[in-house]
Amino acid sequence: MSKFRFTLIVLVGAIILEGKSQNSGLKYLALGDSYTIGESVAEHERWPNQLAYKLGFAKPLIVATTGWRTDNLTNAISIAKLKGEYDLVSLLIGVNNQYQGKPIGQYSIEFEALLNTSIRLAKGNKENVFVVSIPDYGFTPFGMRNKEKISLEIDQFNEVAKRICAKLKVNYINITDISREALNDKSLVAPDGLHPSGKMYALWAARIAEVLNLK
Q1: Which of 39, 135, 155, 212 is within CB 3.0–4.6 Å of 179 for a Cys-Cys bond?
Q2: pLDDT at residue 213, as a whole number
Q3: Contact criterion met (CB below 8 Å) for 12 and 79
Q4: What does the alpha-carbon distance between residue 52 and residue 58 come to, in Å, rounded to a whole number?
Q5: pLDDT over 50 (residue 19)
Q6: For 208-212, what is the mean pLDDT?
Q7: Taking 50 as the threshold, does the pLDDT of residue 116 lie above it?
Q8: How many other CB atoms sit within 10 Å of the CB of residue 79?
Q9: Among 128, 105, 103, 104, which Cα is nearest to 115's?
Q10: Local structure of residue 23 (DSSP, 8 states)
Q11: In a domain, 1, yes or no
């Protein structure tokens, strides 16, 4: 990763990674929570970083923090005063709404608002925005005891996100099935027993690139 120059900024508890590739001026903004910031993996293993490298984009600007719900992400975006200057914007949010037992109706309203914000940040171009489905942590050692409940609720939250994406004509990319492979492959889980490993994130990045047809 030596070809990247980067600056580390801390904003209201969020880690924001900002960089500039020597070979690309294309800007990528990744919005989310622990899955986007890559809890428990090295920076270069995070799926937005792997995706940006694969697509030839500059190192992504990541606005994400472990534990964030839709409302937390909304507040952080507002504080960051981001401009509509990104060539690609991704959104992956909702697992903490589910984990903390927040109403799915609230998630629906806040998610749609975040998706509209994502479109604005992508220069108003819906084709430059994509949503990543919520992974299923019920298939990790951490969530195994409540696997059925977790999986059912994750599916419900994902259905809401998928419906809103269809309504707004934004790409919805399913990686939940990949997350469920962790049950049979421990190497897909990070050492914390909950979050994905760099190997799993590589699978996500490959699928996203394939769907975007930019690989």
Answers
A1: 135
A2: 81
A3: yes
A4: 6
A5: no
A6: 96
A7: yes
A8: 12
A9: 128
A10: S
A11: no
Per-residue confidence (pLDDT) for residue 214, from 0 to 100? 57
Residue type, 42: A
- Determine the Cα–Cα distance for residues 29 and 41; give it in Å rounded to an integer: 19
CA distance 50 to 4: 13
Query: Quick one: tokens of 166?
Result: 């269809």
Does the pLDDT value for residue 83 go beyond 70?
A: yes
Provide the residue range defining the domain that includes 199.
Answer: 11-212
- Residue 137 sits in a domain whose CATH number is 3.40.50.1110
CB 31 within 8 A of CB 114: yes
Residue 118 lies in a domain: yes
Average pLDDT, the chain: 90
* Distance in Å from the first CA to the final CA of the chain: 19
Residue 185 within a domain = yes
89: helix, coil or strand? strand
Q: How many domains does the chain have?
A: 1
**Is the confidence at residue 10, as pLDDT, over 60?**
no
Can you read off the two tokens belonging to residue 12? 């209201």
In a domain, 3, yes or no: no
